[in-house]
Design brief:
The protein is mostly beta strands and 74 residues long. The chain has one helix and five strands, in the order αβββββ. It has a single domain, classed as SH3 type barrels (Roll), CATH 2.30.30.100. A five-stranded antiparallel beta sheet has the order 4-3-2-1-5, with no helix packed on it. β3 and β4 form a beta hairpin.
């Protein structure tokens, strides 16, 4: 099995739906559009969730990498 570096793994998730959890326990679920070396990410077609409940739907969202605790595939 090939070993991936963190940015390689994130690159494999490009154009797929991912779950991003933040330090404030909010979750954003959306399609990964792009990211940079600081793991700042851009998601499209986003659902914001708090405590498992959908709070709102958003179009395009930029999330600062230093606020992220977990990134997972949906």
């Amino acid at each position: 099995m090939e070993q991936l570096r963190p940015l390689d793994a994130l690159n494999k998730s490009r154009d797929k739906r991912i779950i991003v959890e933040l330090k404030n326990n909010k979750q954003f679920i959306g399609k990964l559009i792009s990211f940079d070396i600081h793991i700042n990410i851009v998601l499209d077609d986003v659902e914001e969730r708090m405590n498992g409940e959908m709070v709102r739907k958003l179009n395009t969202v930029f999330i600062r990498g230093d606020t992220i605790t977990i990134i997972s595939t949906e």
